[in-house]
Amino acid sequence: MAGGRAALTGALVVVAASTLGWALAEPMNSLAGSAVRALADSAAVVTLGLTVVPMLDVGRHRAELVRSSATALGVAAAVWLLAEVVRLIVVTAQAAALPLSRVGARDVLQFSLQTTVGRAGLFSIAAALAVGLIALAAPRTAVAAVAAGGSAAAGLAARTLAGHLADSPWGGVAVAVHALAAAVWCGALAAMVLTVGHRGRWARVLPRFSQLSLLCVGLLLAAGVAGAVAAVDSWDALFSTGYGRVLSAKMLVTAVLMVLAWRNRAGWLPAARAHRATAGLSRTRSLIELAIMAVAVALAAALAVTG
């Protein structure tokens, strides 16, 4: 029940943040496109995180976490798969200038096979399906978790490489690295909320997550700056264009998130490592941070669909 409430709250935060992104960029994007992209990205991030989090534990505890997270991984992959299918239908409707009610399977198939964006969408669908099959049918081992993680990462990267900076080799790679670093950071924390249930496991997992998050933050900052330089021509564009306004909002949210993460590293991490932080406190701290992460993910999705 608690996980379901957290997921519902997260979805509402994503929709609200998508509305903000649409308002900042309107009429250069659509609310439906922003929202469905944000929901698909959020599901993909959680899916990737569920493949990463067992690697943060040690020894036999890692094997236990692989087994206990398999059901959540299967559910997350199924949600991601459904969201990707819906997203592909919405993008097809927008490309063909058709209402959703008039989009048929043939339209979706043509768009999927004949456009770069459509082929990237098909790849993401295949990746989500592969992760789901691994979660349901493969042995629940660390090797299977790594295979699922590789599939999820490939599915996430596929859309970024077909986005705004697809014509810029360096820009496209920068956006892909930025997206994957952010996904690992946000997804691993979400997965911890879903799978780490007691104080002892938080004490083992949180320090390793903190080390991982430092690497992720460094990569996403460096790659994010490179991508922004490639996408925005001038400082004025950060406020005079829809793309720039959404980018500015995303940078502001990211700055707030990093300040909060640093404060948690200074206070929460030592308490958790010493078993002084209860599981409830760790979960609450995580959920607050995740709410801000959800806003950043939704704004990134709005940025991706802003023309």
Task: Give the SSE string.
Answer: HHHHHHHHHHHH
Q: Share of helix among residues? A: over 70%
Number of strands: 0
Strand portion: under 5%
Q: Are there runs of 5+ residues with pLDDT below 50, and where?
A: none
How would you describe the shape? globular
Number of helical segments with 4 or more residues: 12
Mean pLDDT: 87
The profile of the biggest β sheet is: none
Alpha carbon gap, first and last residue? 39 Å
CA-atom Rg in angstroms: 19 Å
SS class: mainly alpha
Detailed description of the structure:
- The chain is an all-alpha fold.
- The model has no long low-confidence stretch (mean pLDDT 87).
- α1 packs across α2, α1 packs parallel to α12 and α2 packs across α8.
- 83% of the residues lie in helices and 0% in strands.
- It contains twelve helices and no strands.
- This is CopD family protein.
- Keywords: Cell membrane, Membrane, Transmembrane, Transmembrane helix.
- Pfam families: CopD.
Short description:
The chain is an all-alpha fold and 307 residues long.
Topology:
Blueprint: H1 2-25, H2 31-52, H3 59-68, H4 70-96, H5 105-114, H6 116-137, H7 142-160, H8 169-195, H9 199-231, H10 237-240, H11 242-273, H12 279-304
Helix pairs in contact: 1-2, 1-11, 1-12, 2-4, 2-7, 2-8, 2-12, 4-5, 4-6, 5-6, 6-7, 7-8, 8-9, 8-12, 9-11, 11-12
Comma- or semicolon-separated keywords:
307 residues, mainly alpha, 12 helices, 83% helix
